[in-house]
Write a structure and sequence with these properties.
With about 375 residues, the protein is of the alpha+beta class. The protein contains 3 helices and 26 strands. It has 2 domains: about 120 residues, no CATH class; about 220 residues, TolB, C-terminal domain (Neuraminidase, 6 Propeller).
Amino acid sequence: MTPHDLRTASSFTLAALLLLTGGCAGDSAASDSEATATEGTTVGTDTSTTTATTAGTDTDDPSGGTDSEGVTSSGGATTTSGESTTDVDPTAATDTTTGDPTTTTSAADTTDTASTTSATDTDATDTDATDTDTDTDTGVEPPPLAEWVLAIEDMPGNAIHRLLKISVAEGEVGQVTVICPNLTVDPSIGQVTNFTSLTFNQAKLYASAGKGGTNANTLVLVDPCNCNAAEVGQYGQGIHSVAGITSNTKAEMLGISGSINSVIKIDVNTAAAAVLAMLSMTWGTHGLTWSDADSNLLYGINGANDRLYTFEASTGVELDSIALSRDFGSVGLEYHPGLSTLYACSNPGDLWSVDIMTGLVTTEATLGLNNCDNLAAPFGLVECIPQ
C-alpha cells in the first residue's frame, strides 16, 4: 500500500470512530433526559399524570402504559427506555434514579386534589371531607313528633299523682293512657304535694311542685320509666308559685313566678332561677309555653284576668294580649310543635285548644279528670312513653 493509500484509509477509520462516539454520546444524553423525566414523574412534578391517577379518571396518557378500569398508570411512575414501556407495580413504584420506593393513591380514593406535592399521598384533607359528607349528610329526615300530650293528675288529697298520656291524633283525640298509676315522690319533697306545671327539656320531663308547704317552689325531674319524681332543687330568692315552666329546643328553661310577677330563667341542673323580665300586672293561676324556633315566642295564660299573653322569648318582654272566650280556674298550657296547636286545660279537667289570633277556646275532648293544671308535648322520642 502506498503512503497515499495509507493516509486515505486512516482518515476513513478516524471519521468512523468519531461518528460512532458521537452517536453513543447522543444515546446517553437521551437516556439521561428520559431518566430525569421519570424522576420528575416519581416526585410528582408531572401534576397532570398524578391528578388523573388520584381522581380515578380514565385517561389515555402516552407515558402511562396500560389503561385499567378508569385509572391511568396507577403505579404513579413509569420507566421508558427507547421504544419499550414497562408498567410498575400499582401499589409501590421504584424511582429509576434513586431506587427509593414511592406510594401512590389507590383508585378507590376519589379526591379532588389539584396537585400532588410528594410521591407519598396521605390525602388527609380529602379523607376528612369524605368523612364529613358521610357523617353529616345522611339524608334521613327526623321522625314526626308524637301526637300526644302528657299530664300529671293530682288525685283528691294530693297523695296520688297519675302520669297520663292524652292523644291528640286525628280520630283518637282525648284517648287517655295511664303511664304511671302513682308517681313516687322524692322523700325530700314528700308524697303529699301538687304538680302545677310540666315540660320536656330535650327528652327529659320536668315538673314544678310544692315543698314544705310552699306552692310550686321546687323543680322536679320525672322519670316515666320508673314512675318516680326526684328533686332537682328549689328556685330560691323567694321565688315560688311557679305554675308555668317551659323549654325551648336549646334546652333553656323559662317560667313565670306569681310570687314576684316575673318571667324567670331556670337552670335545669340546679333549679336556680333569675328574673328575665317583670310582668305588667299581678298573675294568679297561670300557664306558660314556648312556641317554636321560627317565631321564638312565649304564650302565657293568666287565670286572674283570663287573657292570653305573648312574650318575646329571649327577653321576656310582653308583646301583646287578647281576651279568652272561657273562664280559667287552674291553667295547663302547651303548644304542640308538631301540630302547631295551642292546647289548654282547666277545671273541669277537659282538653281545650286556643286560637292564638282570636282567643277562642274550643273543647277538643271531655276527659273528666279530677283536675288539670299542667300539659307537656314532646320535642322528640321519649323513653318509656308509647309513641
